[in-house]
Amino acid sequence: MEDDIERDTELALDLLRRVPVDRMEASISSIIDIAPHITEDLLGQVDQPLKIAHDRYAKRDFLLCDYNRDGNSYRSPWTDRYFPKLSSGCKPSKMMRDLEVEFNEAFDIYRDLYYEGGVSSCYLWDIEDDVFGVCVLFKKIQDRTKRGEPMLGNWDSTHILEVYDITEEGAVYQLTSTVLITLKSVGVEEANVFLGGFFTRQDTREMKLSGEDHTHLTNIGSFIEDMEDKIRAEIYALYFGKTNDIVNLLRIRSGVSSRAEGLPGRGLLVGDLKSSLSFDSLSASSYGEDEEDGEYYDDEEYDEEAEYYDE
User: Fold this and answer.
1) What CA–CA distance (Å, rounded) separates 78 from 156?
2) Where do runs of H (alpha helix) occur along the chain?
3) Most exposed residue of 106, 134, 156, 252, measured as fewest CB within 10 angstroms of its CB?
C-alpha cells in the first residue's frame, strides 16, 4: 500500500509540474478526487498560490499555510487565535511565540519597504532541543486594471528555515525559498497572454550572532533578503530578457510594416511569448513543503474591510 501511495504521488507531482499556476488548485482537487489515498502526501509537497484571511480582532490580514493550520482552522500570527474558532488548536511555546511576534513586526516593515503593499506572515515552531523552524510568507497583488491598464500580476513567496547547531556565538540556517509568480493581460482579446511559474531555491549558511541579537532575526532577515534578490534577478532575466528578444525578433520580421500587416505580427508575438515563456520553462524541478488548504476568497474577490469568520 505504501509503495502504491509513493508511486501515485510521484505520478501526480510529475503531472502538476506541467500545469499552469492559475490552474494548480483545480488540478489538485481533480487529482484528489481520483486518488484520495495520496491527499496528505500530495498537499504536503505542492506549492499553491497563498490565500488571505482576516483577523477581525487585530483588524489585519494574514496568510494561510500548512504551518499555521490545524484541521480546517488557521492561526493568526497577530492574536494567536484560530479562525474559524478552535479551542484546542496547536500553538507555539511561549519562547517561540515571543519570537514570532518580533519576527512579524520586523518583516511587516520589510514588506512595506520592498513590496510597497501586500501581506506578510511569520510562523515559528519548536522542532527539538536547540532546533526550531521559521516560515516567512509574502503576497503581493498588482492590479493595473483599476488604472485602465490591462495587466494583473501576483507574487507569492514562501521561505522555510531550519535553525540548528545553535550556540552562544551563532547557528546554522538552512533555507528553502519558493516563489510563484503570475502575470496576465485582462480584457485585451487580440493579445491575451498569461505568464506564470515557480522557482525553488535552497541554501545553507553558518552565521555568527552580532551584538546583543540572540533572536537570530538579523541573520534570518539578511538571508531571506539575499535569496529574494537572487530569485528576483533570475525572474527578471527570464521574463524580460526573453520578452525583449521576442520583441526585437518581431521588429526584424515586421520591418516597416503597415497597420494591416501589424495584426499577424501581434499573433506572432503572442505565439512566441506563450512558447518561450511557457510554464515548463519557468518551473523548478522540486516542490516546497508548505500547504495552503480550505476555501477562502480569491484574489479578485478580496475585500480588506470584510470580516470572514464568526466565533
Assistant:
1) 20
2) 2-16, 24-34, 39-43, 94-115, 217-236, 242-254, 259-276, 279-282
3) 252
Residue 124 CA, distance from chain mean position:
17
Task: Tally the residues of the chain.
Answer: 311
What CATH number corresponds to the domain at position 105? 3.90.1150.210
User: Residues in the chain with pLDDT < 50?
Assistant: 256, 258-260, 262, 277-311
Q: What region, left, alpha or beta, does residue 70 occupy, with left being phi > 0 and alpha being psi -120 to 50 degrees?
A: beta
Burial of 55 by CB count in 10 Å (0-12 exposed, 13-18 middle, 19+ buried)? Answer: buried
pLDDT value, residue 184: 80
Report the alpha-carbon distance of residue 125 to residue 59 in Å, rounded.
24
pLDDT in the model for residue 62: 97
In a domain, 116, yes or no: yes
* Listed residue (186, 191, 184, 183) closest to 150, CA to CA: 186
Q: Report the number of distinct structural domains present in the chain.
A: 1
Q: Is residue 282 part of a domain?
A: yes
The pLDDT assigned to 24 comes to 81
Residue type, 159: H
**Residue 310 belongs to a domain:** no
Non-local (6+) Cβ contacts of 77 within 8 A are 62, 68, 100, 101, 104, 121, 122, 123
Distances (CA, A) of 89 to 65, 68, 72: 15, 10, 10
| CA atoms of 80 and 91, how far apart (whole Å) | 8
pLDDT at 190: 56
pLDDT at 139: 95
Structural domain contains residue 10? no
The candidate with the shortest Cα–Cα distance to 184, out of 14, 18, 21, is 21
- CA pair distance 246, 252, nearest whole angstrom: 10
Considering only CA atoms, which of 137, 12, 29, 142 is closest in space to residue 74?
A: 137
Domain that holds residue 198: 47-301
Contact 187, 155 (CB under 8 A): no
> Look-up: residue for cell 516597416?
256
